[in-house]
Amino acid sequence: METKVCKCCGRELPIEKFRVTAMGRRNTCDECVQKKIVESKQKKKEEHNAIEEAKNARLLRLNDFTPRELMQELRRRGYIGKLYFTITQTVDLENLGE
């Protein structure tokens, strides 16, 4: 029975455990290739979630911007055209004369 050593895990396995490519048999066994695929997908998913969390955090903080900062941030994000906004202020009439 013909065997080959996996470059990744170092185990000696039957040659059937290594996929055939146009260049011959791979140096990494099917099991290690599958592990790398799963790890890569998990890492990509975690990176995507981190990016989404960062976007959401940025969106939640928009109300902390001054009007000028908000306009600059919107321009930085690629918005063009006119922006109309209303400022709402609360005035305590009971303590106004003091």
Q: How would you portray this structure in words?
A:
The protein has 98 residues and is mostly helical. It has one domain. The protein contains two helices and four strands; from the N terminus they run ββββαα. It has a two-stranded antiparallel sheet with strand order 1-2. The longest helix has 31 residues, at 30-60. The radius of gyration is 29 Å and the shape is rod-shaped. The mean pLDDT is 86.
- The sequence of SSEs as H and E is EEEEHH
Give the beta-strand count: 4
> Unreliable segments (pLDDT under 50, ≥5 consecutive)?
none
Residue fraction in strands: 5-15%
Number of helix segments? 2
Q: Summarize the amount of helix as a percent range.
A: 40-55%
* Mean pLDDT over the full residue set: 86
- Give the class from helix and strand content and strand pairing: mainly alpha
